[in-house]
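2024-03-11 09:14:02 INFO queue: dequeued item CMP/dCMP-type deaminase domain-containing protein, len=209
2024-03-11 09:14:02 INFO validating residues
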Amino acid sequence: MAPSSRGPNGTPLSDAALVDKLLTVMEQEVMPTTAKGVEKGNKVFGAAILDADFRVVVASTNHEAVCPFWHGEVHTLKEFFALPASSRPKQEDCYFLCTHAPCPMCLSALTWSGFKVLYQFFSYDDSEGTFNIPYDNQVLREVFQCKRPRRSTPYYDSYDLRELVQHGALSDDERASAWRRIRQIESEYDRLSEVYQQRKHLSTNIMLK
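2024-03-11 09:14:37 INFO prediction written
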């Protein structure tokens, strides 16, 4: 289950409201950015950082065509820490939304960066199967001898957004509405994936395509 979340003025968020906010960020902030990125041969992975009131601080996408380690999460961290420290929210008070389960590099970056709550939409198996990008699973196995990172650690807790829809405290109507939006998001990512697969040859900087 997700942690106790709060909206503006500290008002507790219901699971339905939390799901709505996270899906809205994907639909309105991350996916349009990713649509531009895949046209340049970048992968479909994106991310966003939300403040304590679930307002978007930054949203970004994969920029591997520019630099191999500018994955979606890492580039989002780069944009976040480029903000003036005086106006930037504390990372421990923010929520980090990943469109896909973070690769080992991104998960390490998030650990070092101090974000305490992570949300993800797609799984590692989705990345390998649906998106034909097997490297997260391969690196976990071949480099770290690990099938899956822990979801709960001393550094962060990670939550699956679709599991929250399945098992959270939503009414039948709220759950059905959320699943409709999820299917639309999945369909759009199928389209974005096709664009990436067609255009990934454009970059010589991406070694693992």
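2024-03-11 09:14:37 INFO annotate: The chain has one domain: 19-198.
2024-03-11 09:14:38 INFO item closed
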